[in-house]
Amino acid sequence: MFHQIKKVVIAYFMCAVGAFTALPTLAQTSSPMEPASDQGVYPPWQHGTNNDQIKRGLLFTEPDADNLADFHGDPIHPLLALYVGGNYFFAMAPLVQAFEARYPKYKGHIYWETIPPGLLAKQMETGGTVTVGNMTWSVKPDVFLAGLNAVQKQIDAGLLKGPAVPYVTNTLTIMVPKGNPAHIEGLTDLGKPDIRLAMPNPEFEGIARQIKTSLERAGGQQLVDNVYGTKVADGTTILTHIHHRQTPLWIMQGKVQAGVTWQSEAAFQEQIGHPISHVEIPTADNTTAIYAGAIVKGTPHAEAAQRWLDFIRSKEGLSIFERFGFKSYKASND
Fold this sequence. Notes:
Layout: H1 2-20, H2 24-27, E1 71-72, E2 80-84, H3 89-102, E3 110-113, H4 117-125, E4 129-132, E5 135-138, E6 143-147, H5 148-156, E7 160-177, E8 197-200, H6 207-234, E9 237-240, H7 243-252, E10 259-262, H8 263-271, E11 276-280, E12 288-296, H9 302-312, H10 315-322, E13 327-328
Parallel strand pairs: 2-3, 2-6, 8-9
Antiparallel strand pairs: 1-3, 4-5, 6-12, 7-10, 7-11, 7-12, 7-13
Helix pairs in contact: 3-10
């Protein structure tokens, strides 16, 4: 009886989620892929390794229904709080561990978030307050890390201390299911009416700007308007809120057939064994992003903040980024 009730509750929850994210349009469309049923497709994907807390208390995570995949650590009186654009959520655990090995005083006292930069900026405007589900908490950042333009924007707004500090670069790729059943060969294929896409939302995901540039290079403004206009209107492009988790999740669930992401995100999915692959974008059409950081004005943890910026540009920090295909920033990348 309990199992029957549980199934009903889960089914009801999934229907509610589908309604919220406008996924029913896709769910009603036949898919060449079998929807994944393995709990392993649901974030968080690191099985607790992205949390450096020593005492964790009650462990309660139900991946398809109840989790906080992009919030890490103890929000109560951290010694270092990082607002990190979510594009390298998978690299944060090894970065934090290496940083703590160098500076043991911070062990278990680092808090970090990995949501889109636009949303992090909105959270800063609220004084660091965020609500997820039924929980609300406040953590003001010590360091803001995102694309160079996004960081510079916050410096210009007076929230961060300049200059912006660049550290790595990244490029785009087309994420697809393993085996690429839709036979996508390049960006122009994304404009086809029968290809279902997950694409980052231009409202708060900086990657969307680079994607539009690459789409225009490959197929002109018509391809941009098709992918981000016509296909959004007819439901064959679904806009994500946290592209670095939703795109691979929806691909593994069989709800979409492709999505443009940073190449590092596809590399991570492949490394952990998810049924994900990618289609490379030629250099002539691709776009390079520069990641940068800056210290928040008035932070009480200025020393820790500067140490973090120094560490991620160190040989040890850069070697961690390189595992996922990032390249160290050089001034010639401007």
